[in-house]
């Protein structure tokens, strides 16, 4: 999220951050956004119990109230219902710390190391109803080095994420607005 915010401050960036939303009131990203002068809203999922639909309707209301046109998930670790995914179809992006379609879900770095892969990376994709199954918009690759642990690999992948996600989001926003970059 911080990389997306930083990129949005550049004069050539085609998007601006309208609001930062978290389902956890104590999320560090909310503090970072506030320090950048951005609007923030916590829609605490615990207040909704098991009613995921009501929670997502509250999130959708915040997105709509802030005039959001494209949603960029960053560190949002809850599965979304078909209703919210459908409402934002083609306009909701996510970043995942693997080279999808390899290793959807959790523990991606440990799984890549255990498989003996030569490289890992990250993927920006459109969000669909399936977990980490949406159309791929961009990927970045990093080598898996001898002696890598899930933590050391995660650090290198995170650096790649901070470069990839703002670039892919910018290009997606340009396409949404009918502007192509030559």
Automatic annotation (TrEMBL):
The active site is at 96 (proton donor). (6R)-10-formyltetrahydrofolate binds at residues 52, 77-80, 94. It holds the Pfam family Formyl_trans_N. GO terms for molecular function: phosphoribosylglycinamide formyltransferase activity. InterPro entries: Formyl_transf_N (IPR002376), Formyl_transf_N_sf (IPR036477), GART (IPR004607), GART_AS (IPR001555). It catalyses: N(1)-(5-phospho-beta-D-ribosyl)glycinamide + (6R)-10-formyltetrahydrofolate = N(2)-formyl-N(1)-(5-phospho-beta-D-ribosyl)glycinamide + (6S)-5,6,7,8-tetrahydrofolate + H(+). The record marks 132 as: Raises pKa of active site His. The keyword Repressor does not apply. Its EC number is 2.1.2.2. Pathway: Purine metabolism; IMP biosynthesis via de novo pathway; N(2)-formyl-N(1)-(5-phospho-D-ribosyl)glycinamide from N(1)-(5-phospho-D-ribosyl)glycinamide (10-formyl THF route): step 1/1. Residues 15-169 form the Formyl transferase N-terminal domain. Catalyzes the transfer of a formyl group from 10-formyltetrahydrofolate to 5-phospho-ribosyl-glycinamide (GAR), producing 5-phospho-ribosyl-N-formylglycinamide (FGAR) and tetrahydrofolate. Belongs to the GART family. This is Phosphoribosylglycinamide formyltransferase.
